[in-house]
């Protein structure tokens, strides 16, 4: 990726890439069902009735159905305790017909969200939210699952020919399911990664060094367009009321080489990766079952 002064930023079409990803995912799901009788199943867990969360879960369930993935939904009342939620998630983890588990974020404030996440079996953590998954990302293991939004961002970079190797990457945000794993995935691809956040001193000067900038701080237009390095790749992972991202889109459009729009950039890829990883989880289960059957047959023949 050469850094040059652009006339205007090229928008990175996450909607189109997500559609292609989901088409391939649906084909894999059909093949798995035809060959093994296994239909991938994603269980969604929603605590309370937050309107945005309800809408988001409904969208995921529709996309699951379109991709040939069974959607099993577990709605829980807002008064649900941490212990009750953990027990419900453990029951899904123990259910062999469930391949992936999604706990809709955020949960009500009285719940220990980390305890709930950790109740998800690593083999079913298709949203990439457990400590095991984070460790797998940090160590470059291929037997875990990536956090969906960072994973979707990496696929966007690949689709637009952006090689992170040797580039300076700045991640603004440090959440355990977005900012932190984003940095790990970029580091694994040989980028030089700097983490920043809302309390970083002189953030503008750090942003100005970024060949690849990922904004994931959760504040509308927190990143000023004037601070962006000419020709930089700008990934806006924020979504705030009014379809506003974490980046000053107008200003960034005048300086960036590549820019994700809000909406239509990162968001569609998050769901696409979630469903892709659900099918992968089911494929892994089917592969283990097939291997076990072959071993048992061989042992019986001896």
Automatic annotation (TrEMBL):
Pathway: One-carbon metabolism; tetrahydrofolate interconversion. SUPFAM superfamilies: Aminoacid dehydrogenase-like, N-terminal domain (SSF53223), NAD(P)-binding Rossmann-fold domains (SSF51735). This is Bifunctional protein FolD. Keywords: Amino-acid biosynthesis, Histidine biosynthesis, Hydrolase, Methionine biosynthesis, Multifunctional enzyme, NADP, One-carbon metabolism, Oxidoreductase, Purine biosynthesis. Pfam families: THF_DHG_CYH, THF_DHG_CYH_C. Homodimer. CDD domains: NAD_bind_m-THF_DH_Cyclohyd (cd01080). NADP(+) binds at residues 173-175. InterPro entries: Aminoacid_DH-like_N_sf, NAD(P)-bd_dom_sf, THF_DH/CycHdrlase, THF_DH/CycHdrlase_cat_dom, THF_DH/CycHdrlase_CS, THF_DH/CycHdrlase_NAD-bd_dom. Residues 12-127 form the Tetrahydrofolate dehydrogenase/cyclohydrolase catalytic domain. Gene3D superfamilies: Leucine Dehydrogenase, chain A, domain 1, NAD(P)-binding Rossmann-like Domain. It catalyses: (6R)-5,10-methenyltetrahydrofolate + H2O = (6R)-10-formyltetrahydrofolate + H(+); (6R)-5,10-methylene-5,6,7,8-tetrahydrofolate + NADP(+) = (6R)-5,10-methenyltetrahydrofolate + NADPH. Its EC number is 1.5.1.5, 3.5.4.9. The keyword NADP applies. Catalyzes the oxidation of 5,10-methylenetetrahydrofolate to 5,10-methenyltetrahydrofolate and then the hydrolysis of 5,10-methenyltetrahydrofolate to 10-formyltetrahydrofolate. Belongs to the tetrahydrofolate dehydrogenase/cyclohydrolase family. Residues 147-284 form the Tetrahydrofolate dehydrogenase/cyclohydrolase NAD(P)-binding domain.
